[in-house]
Amino acid sequence: MLAVTAGACADDRREPLVVLGPWTGDEGEAFETMLRRLDDGAGRTYTYQGTRSLRETLVAQLEADAPPDVAILNSVGELTEYARAGRLQPLTPAATARAYPPWAPALDVDGARRTYWVPLKVDLKSLVWSVRGRPAASPRWCVGLASQATSGWPGTDWVEDILLHQAGPDVYTEWATGRLSWRDRRVRAAWTTWAALLGDRSRASLDQSLTTPYVGTPDPAKGGGPRGLLYSLTPRCTHEHQSAFIRYVYAGDPVDVRPSAGFLRGRAAHDGAYEVAGDMAAVFGDDPAARTLVERLSGARARTLWRAEAKRELRPFFPAATDPQPTDPTGRRIAGILTGRARTLCFDASDVMPPGLRDAFHRAVLQYFRDPAPRRLDELLGQLDTVREDAAEDTGPGRPPSSGVCAPPGG
């Protein structure tokens, strides 16, 4: 009996915990190596599954009643839905202590207030990249709206960022959580400001932007890797609005990065606010070891290992100033804003919204980019308001709280 029991325990130790996440290629390899090194040999082993079709993969696994033990998602709206549906396990106290706002608000679910996810990797979004030495006075904007997963999000980032800077964190929060109409004049002004910034565009330019990936076209000099929009589009553009992650595309290129509020001079009353995004880990399996794994993934050792394994230009940003941060000049500057210079951080609004409304927002941006006529905008905002109202009937008390969307830099 002792031999059988010992054998069963050994089998249990060998059964790996599965982590499903969004990183592939070099990013996926760095995370997987960190995960492998995080295993101390005393308990369970870990295996990583990386995919660019994260939502579709997770939904399929849930429908097959075979969820991963841990999944890493960037959408607070999706995570909120899973928590309300009873799919998520609340975190351990140690992991909860690292659930810094605005990345991980506590939720009221079934009469209890708990934390269900914790940020592993974060990004700063309110940034403009440019060819070094190009003045900010008259930018020619690069736009690439195509994405393998969901096209249109580079445009929603623009609308969100403009609304945050023009109307402030309070209005932004009310809108992101479905408490403000899309037909509100301040929301409408964000769309029209975006169109005015981009200026008149030819049909060829519109088509090029709608079909060009957000990372630009392949560059033979980089082994087929992306060359970035600043070097991809014809005629040459000078400035690009994009999140901090794009720095890996421009590694070695002469580019500058500046806060986006400076490009709304005369319109931006809230230049201390920045939009952010994140990749959050949540426990889907009922194995207690999965909760322990998330606790370890959000800890100092995991972050130190991850930074050591990642290529210099792919070293992740973490939410607290005490965390290890990138060491390249661009990375250090961005980390300084993220963990110190910013007065307020607001989570990506479309990723706060329920998935159905987020997807409708992406589609509406593509339609508006092609046809920015005032009457067309009124139609699109009316349609989005209908989706918002329908979503509000389903979310109830489980939707993200207003107090959790924007917050000072934490940790």
UniProtKB/TrEMBL annotation:
Q: Which SUPFAM superfamilies match?
A: Periplasmic binding protein-like II
Query: Disordered: where is this region?
Result: 388-411
Among Pfam families, the record links this protein to: SBP_bac_1
Official protein name in the record: Alpha-glucoside ABC transporter substrate-binding protein
